Amino acid sequence: MANRTAKYATSIHGTNPQYLIEKIIRERIHDSKYWQEECFLLTSALVLERAVDDLKYVGGTYGAKIDPTPFLCLVLKLLQIQPQKEIIYLYIEQTDFKYLRALGAFYLRLVGKPVEVYKKLEPIYNDYRKLRMMDTERKFSVIHMDEFIDDLLHKDKVFNITLPRLTKRIVLEENRDLEPYKSELEEQNLIPTQLIQEKVEKQRDERDREYRSSRDDHHRRDKHSASSHDRGYRDYDHRDRHRHHQDRGAHVSHHRSFNRDSSRDHHHDRKRSHDHHKRSHDNRKRSRSRSPIAEHDKKPSSSSSSSSS
């Protein structure tokens, strides 16, 4: 019952106001000792007293167990009881208690509309007081109030809490919902407008010059890489053609030498075969002439020749 949103509270950004804090962080807050002992049955006036007495630093959660800070517990308490906007405006506009002012600014950033947020938080840019901030490792550092407001207006998460989406100021200016922003120093003419314009133009020229130089460098690198890439391809192509011609010439010369050797071997084989046949024929002829039959055939012819004589 003590953790429920007040019955008279209205939905914020289409949801229960307490749901603007993530569930796991919300549960850690409900289970924390500070919430159970110091935030029970608080009203908007009592929240003011607690903020003045207890808040010595700002922060979200810390440690491995995601323990909440008193600052975050009071933020959730404001979401639970949903005080009137005029009370929150008083938190923000007073300048005596800086942590109460930071509490009201954080709460308004969660529940306020864009135009309302800009109109109420931008004047705090002129507050340069120091704030102690505790990080997730329980280490303390010092920030200034204007830095804290700038984070609320431009960052998506502050103190591990996701902030609702905030319309860009330039869009609201184009829609005529907001006037162009002017700092207090500019309104008091402590900074001449001409110097501001010259500084802005100088910064714009420097950015343009850096952009052009980086673009030219990028273009030169691309061109160099492309030319070296093409050169490499040409070298590869020339080398491949050279290798192809070498391989083709070696193949042709090998083929010619092979044909030459084959014809020479064929000629030698034919000559060797011819010589072999000739020797065989001569041997047969010689053996036939030496046989006894041949001698017997020769004798009668000799006797007949003698008788005829």
UniProtKB/TrEMBL annotation:
Q: From the UniProt entry, list the residue stretches annotated as the region Disordered.
A: 183-309
Q: Does the keyword Nucleus apply?
A: yes
- State the UniProt keywords alphabetically: mRNA processing, mRNA splicing, Nucleus, Spliceosome
- Bias (Basic residues) ranges: 240-257, 267-289
Question: Where is the protein localized?
Answer: Nucleus
Q: Name one GO biological process term.
A: mRNA splicing, via spliceosome
Q: Does the keyword Nucleus apply?
A: yes
Enumerate composition-biased segments (Basic and acidic residues): 198-239
Superkingdom of origin: Eukaryota
**Functional description taken from the UniProt entry:** Required for pre-mRNA splicing.
Q: What is this protein called?
A: Pre-mRNA-splicing factor 38
Organism from which the protein derives: Aceria tosichella (wheat curl mite)
Lineage at the top is: Eukaryota, Metazoa, Ecdysozoa, Arthropoda, Chelicerata
Q: Which gene encodes it?
A: prpf38a
